[in-house]
Automatic annotation (TrEMBL):
Polar residues bias: start-end ranges: 495-524, 546-555
Record Gene3D superfamilies: Pleckstrin-homology domain (PH domain)/Phosphotyrosine-binding domain (PTB)
Protein name: SMEK homolog 1
Pfam annotation, one family: PP4R3
Family of the protein in this entry: Belongs to the SMEK family.
Annotated segments matching region Disordered: 444-473, 494-594
InterPro entries: ARM-type_fold (IPR016024), P4R3-like_central_dom (IPR006887), PH-like_dom_sf (IPR011993), PP4R3-like (IPR051137)
Start-end of Acidic residues biased regions: 444-455, 567-581
Species in which this protein is naturally found: Daubentonia madagascariensis (Aye-aye)
Domain named Serine/threonine-protein phosphatase 4 regulatory subunit 3-like central: residues: 66-407
Amino acid sequence: MTDTRRRVKVYTLNEDRQWDDRGTGHVSSGYVERLKGMSLLVRAESDGSLLLESKINPNTAYQKQQEDEKFLTDLFAQLTDEATDEEKRQELVNFLKEFCAFSQTLQPQNRDAFFKTLSNMGILPALEVILGMDDTQVRSAATDIFSYLVEYNPSMVREFVMQEAQQNDDVSKKLTEQKITSKDILLINLIIEHMICDTDPELGGAVQLMGLLRTLVDPENMLATANKTEKTEFLGFFYKHCMHVLTAPLLANTTEDKPSKDDFQTAQLLALVLELLTFCVEHHTYHIKNYIINKDILRRVLVLMASKHAFLALCALRFKRKIIGLKDEFYNRYIMKSFLFEPVVKAFLNNGSRYNLMNSAIIEMFEFIRVEDIKSLTAHVIENYWKALEDVDYVQTFKGLKLRFEQQRERQDNPKLDSMRSILRNHRYRRDARTLEDEEEMWFNTDEDDMEDGEAVVSPSDKTKNDDDIMDPISKFMERKKLKESEEKEVLLKTNLSGRQSPSFKLSLSSGTKTNLTSQSSAANLPGSPGSPGSPGSPGSPGSIPKNTSQTAAITTKGGLVGLVDYPDDDDDDDEDEDKEDTLPLSKKAKFDS
């Protein structure tokens, strides 16, 4: 039987209208004979004692809902009431935290109804009040409750803070007309302030709050409808009302050439701020771009490259690397105008010859500029920092940047040369497969009588090809190839002339065209050579070799003869095939052998 029990916290309302903690237990349902019906049972998780036994009455469902709403209303009222005792408020906050934790075990539809009820009853305004209190334990519990709400539905939280900002703007406008000043305290700004003012040496609370802020500003979980886009509206609100609060510690600590405060806790806090700003650079568009350029944020961030804490300097470098990775010319012009490579080059030189993460990260950034061929940044780096970097020879990154720069200058000075390179890169000779088939068919249909011996076979497409399209390098290559083939033929024929006998053989040319020649055809133009009429080795002459003698195949490569292969003496079929080949023209014979 499946165990359907769930862990719950049991509170009972006493005579003084105060909630008493009865303990934690597991709730289940079952038939109770004493109550004559199905009942809810809660047994303590410590000893199994019965904490609650209540009969389920379907007729009281609406009444139960009314009681729940009244209970939540009283709960939030007591939490926000300044007269509430601190110990009592802490108990109520912990109860609400347990209540939200219990909701994680509900089915999705029940969990949706639960959080919608909390939202309708005013949980977010109540949290805003609680987060503004001085009690750290109460604020910590309120932060946990807020995290449940953000994880469940960040759009609900964003909608609340935007409505709150709109109401504050309306109130501020009226107060301005009455010449009264007002301090706007928004829920999301409270979260940022608590992140900045975290007193924990490990900044555990700040890390948690930074994660919640990243979820709220993440465009991936923002809704888009036909009438409005949540991304546009919320990011516009965030950069108008909240970004200055987030960047305040960064701007306050980078007014000079080095960080004003460089202790470990401040460095950790600034690293968290930079992590969130880097996330904004990656996921936001013109909002963060306008803010960085108008507020000169990158220059302030690069001041942190002089920090004694390596992790903070790397965070600053990563922020700039993310900006360069966008390959946005607006950013590039801003970097060049403010000479924002100077802090990076200075940090690289100060690092010296040490092979560490800082060294690798800086080289990787310049390597990215070289590989991606970001022309404006390449020229800026070489023109302004080459003297400082030219002696770095353990990597080829900076010399590669110099080469890129020189190539750019060469293209600018000789625009025709650049266009010619493009033509050479894009020039290709392509022939359709169907054209090749048609040419082969035409060649086989050609009458032998129409062709003279030794006449070169030229395809129709080659005949019609314009001579201007044939490039000089190709022509020179073909001439060298033909000259090499002719030299190999002469070497082979000289080798054959040195022998006393001329058995039938096959000649394989290194040009790739496999032309098989018999002894008669190969020696036809060599008077007095073996195999010519009247020579001792010719057929019908005295001393001629009969056909049934063993034949030898000479295999040649570029270096001449390689080896000999003997064939059986009684291979008469091969002799008949060779006799048939003798009757074919030389060009078609080469075609068949290939």
